[in-house]
Amino acid sequence: MIPSVNPSGSDTRGLLYYLYDTGKHEDHTDPHLVASFDGMSPDPGRDPNATLTDLTQLLDQPMMALARHARPAKHVWHTSVRADPGDRILSDEEWAGIARRIVAATGIDPGEGQSGCRWVAVRHADDHIHIVATLVTEDGHRPDDYRSGARAQAEARLIEKELGLHQVAPGDGTAAQRPTSAERHKAKRQGRERTARETLRETVRRAVTGARSDEEFFARLAAAGLLIRKRTAPSGDLLGYKVALHDDLNKDGEPVFYPGTRLAPDLSLPRIRERWSGDPASEQDDTVVARPSTPAAARRATASAAWQAVLIVEHGDDAVAAAHIAAAGEVLDALATTSAAHTRRELRNAATAFERASRSHVRAVRGHDRALRQAARDLVHGGNALGRGEDGASTAMAIDMLFFLITVAAHWHARKGHAQQAEAAAQAAEHLRAAYQPAAAQPLDALYARGRRLSRPVIQRQTALLRDTLPTLAEQILAEPGWYALAATITEAEAVGHDPALLLSDAVERRELDTADQVSDVLVWRLRRAADMPADASVLPETDTAGARTTTRRPTTRLSTPGRRPNGKRHRVRPDEPRRAASAHIIGGAAIRKSALWIL
Length: 600
Fold this sequence. Notes:
The protein is α+β, with helices and mostly antiparallel strands. It has 20 helices and ten strands. Helix content is about 50%, strand content about 10%. It is elongated and about 95 Å long. The two termini are about 25 Å apart.
């Protein structure tokens, strides 16, 4: 249950007109009062003799009794209280009880003999009510409504438990401001999927991703097509900014501007500047140090940065961990913006969900997170990735590593008691899990094909190596469909001069694997990253059946169905051989294999 308090308005009748209007809003059906300060206020929705003017005059009477100079300019208090979509439909009597508890908790009408304000609760839809009050008590004073929004939220948590409703994670005041009802209805009238506030928040968030200066940030905003107004001091110093969409206009035909701080707490100009103020690289030219210049190279660098950040969030100082978690949000934004179409939707959903997890009351000490911010910058400058080849395979590798980082961030928030942030990070991880599956399908299929072509002596040698190096995990890995992909990776690592035993040991020691869905797949990406091997097997030198290196060539065919060789003939599956068909992850096939990601 979400109360959304808007404490300062000036037009009681205008607000009531909106609540009772059924002509413009499809979800406004049968508007009527469910409760009021005296229990007998006129109801223009159900009483044909009552008018909006009657109700307005009744609510405003204590204010109008004051001398004109003593009347508050902003005298209208308004909140909507909305149930979760999965909750049962509440009765009018239940909504009336909720309204009385909210006005008491917020100080609007405290009861127990204390003077309160006049208020009404209007219901015009099944899932929510609106409470309207005049901010002058019956004895002519201002009510004690300090932090009424937080008090309403706290009372809502108690109501949810008592009525058996969906329990919302308690907030800490660091969430971005939700769109108002008026903004939502305006977006619906204009045929927009999201409100202007939400669109601007996402655009600004992407513009700041990996940015290093005010100039670069504002150039990105302009390139995204936003209208920008800057606030400067008499000295000429830049103090703040606000942005608007070209086609989001008010009743006078003027653009509606939003300051950065009204989009999200960390999008104010001072908070944005913190991101690059602690980074000495912010004053350097990109040409000084060679950076990844292709989408695939940027994704490999991202995987490495995410892997290092996992250890820092798990074991580092809270302020440094908070900085890395915030920077992880930038990486998700950059990856979503530059990835191929078949992963973009889920990656964008992951970035949107994680936005809530990127802020908390643990103030981030920026500068220590420069590796992740640089990874985000590399992704932006590396350009859009293809969904195949090394681009596609390195995307799967980056998503895999980012999943570990986001999961660790969820655990970190949970330990700190940040319920909303932990839930948001968990949601982002699930979107990453969904994005990983199509990204990893082709490269893992190619590796599986290479592993199936290895000779029996090579497979036996790799099996013995696995049992010697990872005795507690070997049998589980050997039973997984991904074992052949791992065997191919081990063979390739040997061919380029690495010690596979050391690679395997390091990959396991750096992070536990007990909760992995497919340990073999996790190890494939860790080994390929650690050995600096291309993520896509099709660009690697072929090995013969004995494991020796041969000339480089790109296979002209791939496995298109489980159990079929590249020449189109089926191979005979031994009774003791794991059947790939049971968990194949063929795009467009009947089944999608579980990803290498961990269960939260």
